[in-house]
């Protein structure tokens, strides 16, 4: 059976929830609806909009507002009305007046939203492509409302990766050095948990997925203290055609040094 030509852009809610387990995203939205007048949900890397559309169908309440960021206009998603066309294409029933709002820019350079704006932020597969992942995590924290949550897939690891990607088996695309020594992302984030920032690193048992879960427990800015070294970082995707190694050459290998 042939894959849909845009298969990599049509990951839906089922795959999103499977990364975090127990339908945590849906449960959180329901919980926020019981306490908030307006609930705003942002998806980074919404692709063809399937996940946002499925959430819209599950939550037709006008108090829930959905937003999405793609880095460029691509595929069948270039403007807001394209959500309606894609909903019909994928058999998702959504009202015309409740379509998600799309934005197109590089989120790795900052998010174009006010502080304390979103109740939940979700992302699958997009973050591994971002260069300055540290800045992006700080930005997610900034735009979350107090007690808001972020459900973020930040990396994937497979045992067949080449040596340079196995240097960090935890997060090969998010590499941190402290005084010349490699340290784990989980180890670094744990330091902030001790300071009252609920930022957790999670590896789903038996799975390749590496995720970060956030709950905004303090309005203090999250400053991870990492310097992004652009010279040491590189875009793996550009090697795709040259190396022809499926499942390896994608995303950005981001290298950071402790400030």
List the main descriptive attributes of the protein structure presented here.
24% helix; single chain; 27% strand; alpha/beta; globular; five-stranded mixed sheet; Rossmann fold
The largest sheet, given as strand count, sense and whether it forms a barrel, is: 7 strands, mixed
**Rg (C-alpha, Å):** 18 Å
Mean pLDDT: 93
End-to-end Cα distance, whole Å, is: 50 Å
SSE order: HHEHEHEEHEHEEHEEEEHE
Helical content band = 10-25%
Tell me, what's the shape? Answer: globular
**Beta strands, count:** 12
Describe this structure in words.
The protein has 259 residues and is an alpha/beta fold. The chain has one domain: Rossmann fold, CATH 3.40.50. Helix content is 24%, strand content 27%. It is built from 8 helices and 12 strands. The chain has helices at residues 13-20, 24-33, 50-58, 82-89, 133-143, 163-166, 185-193, 240-243, and strands spanning 39-44, 64-70, 101-104, 118-123, 144-156, 174-178, 181-183, 198-203, 209-215, 226-228, 234-235, 252-258. The strands form 2 sheets. The protein has a 7-stranded mixed β-sheet. Strands 6, 7, 10, 11 and 12 form a 5-stranded mixed β-sheet that branches. A hairpin with a 2-residue loop joins strand 6 and strand 7 (181-183). It is globular. It starts with 12 loop residues before the first helix and ends with a strand. The model has no long low-confidence stretch (mean pLDDT 93).
């Amino acid at each position: 059976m042939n894959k849909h030509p845009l298969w990599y852009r049509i990951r839906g809610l089922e795959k999103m929830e499977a990364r975090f387990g127990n339908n945590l995203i849906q449960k959180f939205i329901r919980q926020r609806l019981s306490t908030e007048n307006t609930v705003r949900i942002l998806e980074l890397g919404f692709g063809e909009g399937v996940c946002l559309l499925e959430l819209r169908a599950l939550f037709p309440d006008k108090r829930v507002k959905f937003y999405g960021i793609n880095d460029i206009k691509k595929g069948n998603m270039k403007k807001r009305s394209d959500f309606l066309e894609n909903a019909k294409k994928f058999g998702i029933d959504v009202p015309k007046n409740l379509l998600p709002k799309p934005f197109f820019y590089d989120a790795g350079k900052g998010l174009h939203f006010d502080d304390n704006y979103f109740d939940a932020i979700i992302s699958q597969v997009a973050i591994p492509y971002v260069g300055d992942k540290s800045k992006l995590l700080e930005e997610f924290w900034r735009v979350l409302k107090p007690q808001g949550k972020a459900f973020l897939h930040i990396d994937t690891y497979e045992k067949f990766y080449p040596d340079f990607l196995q240097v960090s088996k935890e997060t090969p695309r998010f590499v941190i050095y402290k005084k010349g020594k490699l340290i784990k992302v989980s180890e670094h984030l744990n330091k902030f948990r001790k300071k009252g920032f609920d930022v957790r690193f999670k590896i789903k048992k038996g799975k390749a997925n590496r995720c970060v879960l956030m709950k905004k427990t303090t309005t203090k800015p999250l400053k991870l203290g990492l310097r992004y070294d652009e010279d040491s970082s590189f875009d793996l995707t550009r090697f795709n055609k040259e190396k022809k190694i499926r499942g390896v050459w994608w995303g950005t290998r981001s290298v950071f040094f402790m400030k």
